[in-house]
Amino acid sequence: MAETRAVVVDAVTKRFTLRHARSIKNMTVRALRREKLRDRFTALDDVSLTIGVGEAVALVGVNGSGKSTLLKIISGVMPPDEGTVRVRGRVAGLIEVGAGLHPDLTGRENIFLNGAILGMDRAETLAKFDSIVGFAEIGRFLDQPVRFYSSGMFMRLAFSIAVHTDPDVFLIDEVLAVGDPLFRRKCIERLHEYRASGRTMLIVAHDVALLRRLCTRGVFLENGRVLWDGDIERAADLLLKKRQERRRAAALSPEAAEAGR
Ligand SMILES: Nc1ncnc2c1ncn2[C@@H]1O[C@H](COP(=O)(O)OP(=O)(O)OP(=O)(O)O)[C@@H](O)[C@H]1O
Fold first, then answer.
1. Which residue spans adopt a coiled-coil conformation according to this UniProt entry (predicted)?
2. 141 with 107: CB under 8 angstroms?
């Protein structure tokens, strides 16, 4: 029987340690006051999720709900504390702006390095090289170290390499917020083509209209738990509602404003 599941996240939990004191002075003061020096914080709490081959899923939730952490665990860059993740096929993750690009290497060198990390051999990278450079529009900066690139150029190159690896599963985190509108449109068109070719996509973005256009399913995270998994419309409505609640709370108290940023 053909495998129809591209990603299986099973009962994943992830905790972080929050350190309250950074300096020795601060630690001493807290110790004298018998305050805790650190806390364990649960960023993902027993999350289970199955994504079918060819599905385009939006991962939404207010700031700090655990979206990036979940993408990092699915991509394999971070292990879960509990639970398991299985991904079928080649995965490409655009998890942070410029993810995977080495600042001291040139654009050209990064194409080969990043291509290899994402599973392309040298012959495949060579065959796609011109297309990667063309799509990224980095032109004369190709032989400059990428630390001299603007954030838009960084993102264009990272996106171009990732999309050219023809991943079976494409994980995208907020990168579409960077860069100029024209390039953004080009990326979105590319993602539509990618979807139409039957590949799987999991995307985090704060632009609700974009998510509605690209995805049919939405997973809403709140405090590291799945609050909704289903129709994108309902997920988008939930997000807009929660954002409104946060804004209202922020208007009432400056501390809430700080927490709700
Ligand atoms: N390496 C880390 N160490 C400690 N805490 C972390 C770490 N990474 C994330 N967190 C915390 O885990 C929580 C979830 O973070 P995460 O980045 O996954 O949320 P998010 O939903 O992607 O948020 P945003 O929309 O702001 O990007 C946050 O409270 C964050 O501060």
1. none
2. yes
The rounded Å distance from CA 132 to ligand 1 centre is 31
- CA of 33 from ligand 1 middle (Å) equals 28
What is the pTM assigned to this prediction? 0.86
User: pLDDT band at 169, cuts 50/70/90?
Assistant: very high
What are the tens digits of pLDDT across the range 193-237? 998 999 999 999 888 988 999 999 999 999 999 999 999 999 999
Calculate how far, in angstroms, residue 168's C-alpha sits from the geometric centre of ligand 1.
26
Q: Is 260 in the pocket of ligand 1 (CB under 6 A)?
A: no
Pocket flag, ligand 1, residue 259 (CB < 6 Å): no
Spatial CB neighbours of 157, under 8 Å, sequence gap ≥ 6: 98, 101, 107, 110, 111, 136, 138, 146, 149
Cα 65 to ligand 1 centroid, rounded to whole Å:
7
* Closest-lying ligand 1 atom to the alpha carbon of residue 69: 18
Contacts (Cβ under 8 Å, ≥6 apart) of 213: 188
**What value of ipTM does the predicted structure carry?**
0.95
226 - beta bridge partners? Answer: 221
38-66 residue pLDDT tens: 778 899 999 999 999 999 999 999 988 99
